[in-house]
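Lab notebook, bench 4. Still working through the backlog of constructs that have no structural model yet. Next entry is a single chain of 57 residues. Request: give me the structure tokens for it.
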Amino acid sequence: MATNKPVGDNARKGAVRDRDQVYNPKNETWTKRNGDGKFIDQKSKKNEPFKGVRKIK
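Model written out:
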């Protein structure tokens, strides 16, 4: 399981499991999916992927 300690160092220890992210070139955002393939979150800032989440091409 991923943890965010110590607080304030802007780093994650480990990877987020059972999640991945895909890039949508149409609106230039990253979208996060859970293990079932359902979309759960979309990044509001453009061209910045989620931290600690595996990327799928």
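Notes after review: The longest strand covers residues 20-24. The CA atoms of residues 16 and 40 lie 14 Å apart. Flag for follow-up if needed.
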